[in-house]
Amino acid sequence: MGNKKLTIGILLLVLGVIVGMSLYVRTSNGNLDVKRHHVCAILPLTGRLAEMGQHVKKGILLYCEKYPDFPFEFAFYDSAGNPAQGISVYKQVSLKSTPEILLSATTGVSESLIPLAAKDGTFVLIAISNVERILRGKKNVQRFTDRSIDMILPIAQYVQKKYSSITIIHSDDGEGTATYQSMFKSLPKGFKVNEVTYPISAIDVRAEISKAISFNSDIIYISGSGSAYINGIRILKDNSCQFIADSTFADPAVLKALGRDAYHVPYVGSRFSADVDYDEKAKNFKLDFRKMFGESPFITASYSYDMCAVLDYFDKNSIEITQSSFERLGLFHGVSGLIRFLPGGECSPTFELLEINENGEIVPFAKD
């Protein structure tokens, strides 16, 4: 029985590598004389964060389709958001050839892979992680996604003008803790901040939401993902609570699950997702994405598309892919909006408060 399980496990891992390599070949376009850079992309393609991971992948595939001479080849592998699975995949890939670039997603997986990549001399690009600590002291890493502080600042600026207390409901993982810490630091001294956490794997969060409501704060902020997040928003709506949601709110899977319950909920997000054609790049990106995939893009797709654009720029201008190269780039205007590259591998996208109106359109939040 034990040997049978081991054999099945090996076959599944080999199958994963074969699937990854098939995608590797299909995204390898253009002139064969051009030097190609190889990227190992370990993403949550299944599991709780699958929707976000799939949109990272789709943003890349769209760029490869739109620009056939893009000299970067991506091999996609599934981590399911599990650090152990991510490590296993990376080691299996490295047995054949050390990746030149690693695209990693989620905090847990990335924290596990960064040291391995550093030993191999592999440069790491980070997606789907808002935790700032994972870059501290690291020289081989560049974030290409938002940080908790980027999302929190527009909320903090809004609530401190109108209210004197807030309750923060967040998942009990690294992302949730980072969100709470950023909010606490961003609000003025004396502003009352309460905290309620829920297990990231939870489904029923009625007890946690009831506790949050019992604080009688002026406003509630909810962050997280998965069933707990969706059910928490439903309960807040049912109780006519005044609340703000994080950027996960705009995840297509969340909006589909909420239906009309998503209307008139203020949430923090990127203007690119709004149904207001304020930016030609964003407008064309959304049109191309819907044409190719038959759905609207989530913010993670815009980040990965912009990541490809920056890598393309570096290659065309013979610029080495390093933290300092991103920092020297400074302000970048991509399909996701304005991104400011900072020292130490950080970047800071632009966020604002949005809502979905009665027509189902994403528009800037009317702040009264």
Structure in words:
This protein is α/β, with parallel strands linked by helices. The protein is built from twelve helices and 15 strands. The protein has a five-stranded parallel sheet with strand order 2-1-3-4-5, with helices on both faces.
Order of helices and strands: HEHEHEHEEHEHEHEHEHEHHHEEEEE
Which structural class best describes the helix and strand composition? Answer: alpha/beta
Instruction: Extract low-pLDDT stretches.
Output: 4-32
Number of helices: 12
List keywords for this structure.
368 residues, globular
State the gist of this model:
This protein is 45% helix and 19% strand. It has helices at residues 2-26, 50-66, 83-96, 107-120, 148-162, 174-186, 206-214, 226-238, 252-258, 280-293, 299-316, 323-329, and strands at residues 37-43, 72-78, 101-105, 123-127, 141-143, 165-171, 192-198, 219-222, 243-245, 267-269, 331-334, 337-341, 347-349, 352-356, 362-364. The longest helix has 25 residues, at 2-26.
Give a topology summary.
Blueprint: H1 2-26, E1 37-43, H2 50-66, E2 72-78, H3 83-96, E3 101-105, H4 107-120, E4 123-127, E5 141-143, H5 148-162, E6 165-171, H6 174-186, E7 192-198, H7 206-214, E8 219-222, H8 226-238, E9 243-245, H9 252-258, E10 267-269, H10 280-293, H11 299-316, H12 323-329, E11 331-334, E12 337-341, E13 347-349, E14 352-356, E15 362-364
Parallel strand pairs: 1-2, 1-3, 3-4, 4-5, 6-7, 6-8, 8-9
Antiparallel strand pairs: 10-14, 11-12, 12-13, 14-15
Helix pairs in contact: 2-11, 3-4, 5-6
